[in-house]
Amino acid sequence: MKKQLFLMRHGETLFNQLKKVQGACDSPLTEKGIVQAHQAREFFQENGIQFDHLYSSTQERACDTLEIITNNKSYQRLKELKEMGFGSFEGEQQFLQPQGKEYFENFYLQFGGESMAMVQKRMTTALYQIMAQEDHQNVLVMSHNGACISFLQTIWQGDEADLIRSFPNCAIFILTYENHTFCLEDIIDPSIKKSIL
User: Fold this and answer.
1) Burial class (CB in 10 A: 0-12, 13-18, 19+), 121
2) What is the pLDDT of residues 118-177, one digit of tens each?
3) What are phi and psi of 70, to 5 degrees?
4) Which of 26, 74, 87, 94 could connect to 113 by a Cys-Cys bridge, CB 3.0–4.6 Å?
């Protein structure tokens, strides 16, 4: 039976606004981030989308976004859904980070951070375990840009260059799950109510 997973990035945070590296560290949602979460909530309401199970990264920015969208419904927090850890780069200005996909593979390990493979493994394991549960038919999972991309890389069928980018805050990745297989159906930016796939 075909199930649906709505995987999301959290709303804009103070560190997003200040262009600071934000992985394992956290910062609160901005006013814009709160508005974005309300826009996502409206998208789900307008499209008659209801969830039987809710999950979030343990990080405040993800939990706060989920709570706004679901009007404080009960949900489960999972560390496996957290953003990639950047070690001693945490909280620094983004321009100090090296550019290029190859730097996300293993570069941050030497600074006490994670490799892309580590993030990919924990994200993928968690999402397959979530969707394999029989009563999970329509699930919302709140996570982070890098963590979402790391998972999507494992199922992406197109040009990888189209995937390695910064998706808008509160971007909604709509996936189906059937026969132990995920398929990306669409990516929605709820602030414009349009597909950005």
Assistant:
1) middle
2) 999 999 999 999 999 999 999 999 999 999 999 999 999 887 777 777 899 999 999 999
3) -100, 5
4) 87
Q: What gap in Å lies between CA 131 and CA 64, rounded to an integer?
A: 23
Percent of the chain with pLDDT over 90: 90
Residue whose pair of structure tokens reads 């968690």 in the numeric block = 126
The arithmetic mean of pLDDT across residues 21-38, rounded, is 97
Report, in this order, helix, strand and coil percent for the chain, each rounded to 5: 40, 20, 40
Q: Over 90: is that where the pLDDT of 100 sits?
A: no
Alpha helices per DSSP H over the chain = 14-18, 31-46, 60-70, 103-106, 116-132, 145-152
Spatial CA neighbour of 62 closest among 125, 121, 132, 148: 148
Q: In terms of CATH architecture, what is 3-18+29-82+116-195?
A: 3-Layer(aba) Sandwich (3.40)
Q: Which residues contact 84 (CB under 8 A, 6 or more apart)?
A: 23, 24, 104, 108, 113, 114, 116, 119, 144, 146, 147, 150
